């Protein structure tokens, strides 16, 4: 009998809240979706080119580097960003107010005022790491289109 055995009674009382909580669905952590962080490293940004020239036109003023957790650096200033689901919002710093759509790891598209993908694209070119990579670093003037082309062609054997 449960009522006569104090240890069983105590065990049931302690387990009841956990069993009730396990049955209830968990709400999303924030209204915008799951919170995350971007891949650390330098993001090179460009606008699309045209058929008569390069595939992309580098926009150096739009480049930034994700440092740690939710921090970035642009124009010599540090700022922070919030990534919820696939939307990145620069919350302070040089790019405060700018918003991006994360299409994949290391590939962002700046959002226009109406919330649609705009022409500016930013691609992760150099990852921050404590250990040197056996792969050669991408040149500083490498365009996002060239880096995206490398991503589409598959992993490099280095």
Q: What's a quick, concise take on this entry?
A:
The protein has 158 residues and is of the alpha+beta class.
Radius of gyration: 23 Å
Q: Give the strand line-up of the largest sheet.
A: 2-4-5-6-7-8-9-10
Uncertain residue ranges: 133-141, 151-158
- Main β-sheet description: 8 strands, antiparallel, barrel
Give the CA-CA distance, first to last residue.
68 Å
At the first level of CATH, the class of one domain is Mainly Beta
Any idea of the CATH topology of one domain? Answer: Lipocalin
Indicate the proportion of strand residues: 35-45%
CATH architecture designation of one domain? Beta Barrel
Structural class: alpha+beta
The quaternary state of the protein chains shown equals single chain
| Silhouette | elongated
What's the total number of strands?
A: 10
Elements, N to C (H/E): HEEEEEEEEEEH
What is the helix fraction of residues, given as a range? 10-25%
List the helices and strands and how they pair.
Elements: H1 6-23, E1 35-36, E2 41-48, E3 56-58, E4 64-66, E5 71-74, E6 77-84, E7 87-92, E8 99-104, E9 107-111, E10 117-127, H2 144-152
Antiparallel strand pairs: 1-6, 2-3, 2-4, 2-10, 4-5, 5-6, 6-7, 7-8, 8-9, 9-10
């Amino acid at each position: 009998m449960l009522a006569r055995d104090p240890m069983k009674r105590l065990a049931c009382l302690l387990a009841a809240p956990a069993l009730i909580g396990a049955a209830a669905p968990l709400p999303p952590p924030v209204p915008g979706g799951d919170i995350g962080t971007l891949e650390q490293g330098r993001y090179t940004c460009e606008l699309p080119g045209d058929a008569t020239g390069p595939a992309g036109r580098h926009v150096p003023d739009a480049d930034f580097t994700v440092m740690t957790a939710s921090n970035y650096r642009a124009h010599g200033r540090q700022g922070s960003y919030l990534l919820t689901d696939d939307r990145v919002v620069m919350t302070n710093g040089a790019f405060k107010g700018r918003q991006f759509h994360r299409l994949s790891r290391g590939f962002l598209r700046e959002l226009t005022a109406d919330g649609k993908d705009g022409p500016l694209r930013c691609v992760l070119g150099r990852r921050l790491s404590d250990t040197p990579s056996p792969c050669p670093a991408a040149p500083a003037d490498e365009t996002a289109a060239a880096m995206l082309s490398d991503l589409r062609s598959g992993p490099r054997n280095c």
